[in-house]
Amino acid sequence: MKTNFAVVPRFLRQHPAMAVNIALSFLTMKKASLYDRRYRESTSKELGLIYFRITPLCNLRCVMCGQRGEKGVLKGKYAYEESKNIVPVEKYYELVDELSPKKPVFYMWGGEPFMYPDFMDLCAYITSKKCILSVNTNGTFLAENADRIVRDKWHGLFVSLDGFEDTNDSIRGKGSYRRVIEGFEAINKAKRKYDSNLPYMGIVTTVNRLNYLHLDELALAVRDFDLAWHIINLGTYTNDDVVARHKTFMKEKLDTNITCLQAYNTGYNEGIDGEKFKEILRKVHAIDNGYPIITVPVIDPDKIGEYYSDLDVIVRDNCTVPWSQANIDYNGNVHFCADYPDYVLGNITKDKFFDIFNNERAQRFREVLKGSPNGIFPGCVRCYQNMLCGQRRKGY
Ligand SMILES: C[S@@+](CC[C@H](N)C(=O)[O-])C[C@H]1O[C@@H](n2cnc3c(N)ncnc32)[C@H](O)[C@@H]1O
Ligand code: SF4
Ligand code: SF4
């Protein structure tokens, strides 16, 4: 069984400069967690990771998606209307110029990022600035863009795949599995053509009650695509009680109306049996297909049942995200919380990013977070960024 860090020697051997840049970004993100949150300043000069939710559009409608799933709002006519407000690529070039000296990891997502009109040009611009570029995609546009992806030296491709064919397509839509597989083949062909190890490519599986018993079938199906990782994202879920508490808290403390969290109250966590899931994870690890299998969050296998059945249980606390990360939304708004863009700090079409990152609203958010029980807000309990960067709670 490969450990979570098994991929590091490969990166170091093949692309030492990239490995060092990633390591420094992670250190930047870890720094704020090294000391008690009471002593953190309300401003920050650090930026390890910058997310771009670059478009509100997507060609799929995955059942558990917090944007476009059953309870998501970023779909249909509303998403179409919002797509008229996207930031022009010239503005993003200016932003990249401002950010690149800090060498954060650039993480593109959406919606489906390939639906941003100038996506390929923007990505090429980021890599030309010697910055690390990672793209999270549903994989359905990989085949037609494979040549440029490899030629322009993208670093990481995080491709969502939620199961082997039937399982995946029941979640992500008919034909989506095949298109991803064609994409893997096209990328590998282009890598041979350019004799390149880039991009490192891996899959991200979001766990829900439709796929958790079939993760081993997926692991077997993708073993020949020279993948670099398989991330098993345990998923973001919430319930009415958590949403109600979060709404009250955020209104009172930050005068913010919460609209995004409730879309994660999908119920797709219900019925996930911790013992059965543990057994499936054991099988997946036993397949040993040469790349690390990483659960996010890393969690004691005996606690997986609780993760899904008791959405109040805190597995990560002391969120440090606002001290080293931010998300730029498709309309230029800046937020700390990528999945929950309710609290707007400012907009990059009006102000410089680093002025926004430390403006009065940003400082207020950090101060309220520092003063909150466990260093998180009520709605943060299953936040993906917190699962990645929050402090591991004792016992979990
Ligand atoms: C919102 S998508 C955007 C990028 C692209 N459209 C894709 O699917 O990869 C980003 C990631 O969030 C995952 N995701 C969707 N619903 C989720 C949920 N309820 N909890 C956690 N992750 C979720 C997706 O599977 C995907 O890996
Ligand atoms: S492809 Fe991504 S953004 Fe589109 S519906 Fe699926 S998870 Fe959501
Ligand atoms: S844990 Fe809370 S404050 Fe931190 S990024 Fe997530 S939603 Fe935002």
Describe the protein in words.
With 396 residues, the protein is α/β, with parallel strands linked by helices. 38% of the residues lie in helices and 13% in strands. The protein has 15 helices and 12 strands. It has helices spanning 8-14, 16-31, 76-82, 89-99, 119-128, 142-151, 165-172, 176-193, 215-221, 240-254, 274-287, 304-309, 353-357, 360-370, 384-389; strands at 49-53, 105-109, 133-137, 156-160, 200-206, 229-233, 293-296, 316-317, 325-329, 333-335, 346-347, 391-392. Strands 7-6-5-4-3-2-1-9-10-11 form a 10-stranded mixed β-sheet, with helices on both faces. It has a two-stranded antiparallel ribbon with strand order 8-12. Helix 1 (8-14) packs across helix 2. The structure holds S-adenosylmethionine and iron/sulfur cluster (2 copies). S-adenosylmethionine binds next to strand 3 and strand 5.
Give the helices and strands, then pairings.
Elements lengths: L7 H7 L1 H16 L17 E5 L22 H7 L6 H11 L5 E5 L9 H10 L4 E5 L4 H10 L4 E5 L4 H8 L3 H18 L6 E7 L8 H7 L7 E5 L6 H15 L19 H14 L5 E4 L7 H6 L6 E2 L7 E5 L3 E3 L10 E2 L5 H5 L2 H11 L13 H6 L1 E2 L4
Parallel strand pairs: 1-2, 1-9, 2-3, 3-4, 4-5, 5-6, 6-7
Antiparallel strand pairs: 8-12, 9-10, 10-11
The structure holds S-adenosylmethionine and iron/sulfur cluster (SF4) (2 copies).
One iron/sulfur cluster (SF4) binds next to loops.
Envelope shape: globular
Order of helices and strands: HHEHHEHEHEHHEHEHHEHEEEEHHHE
By secondary-structure content and strand pairing, the structural class works out as alpha/beta
**Would you report the number of β strands?**
12
- What small molecules are bound in this structure? S-adenosylmethionine, iron/sulfur cluster
- Please describe the biggest sheet, giving its number of strands, its sense, and whether it closes into a barrel: 10 strands, mixed
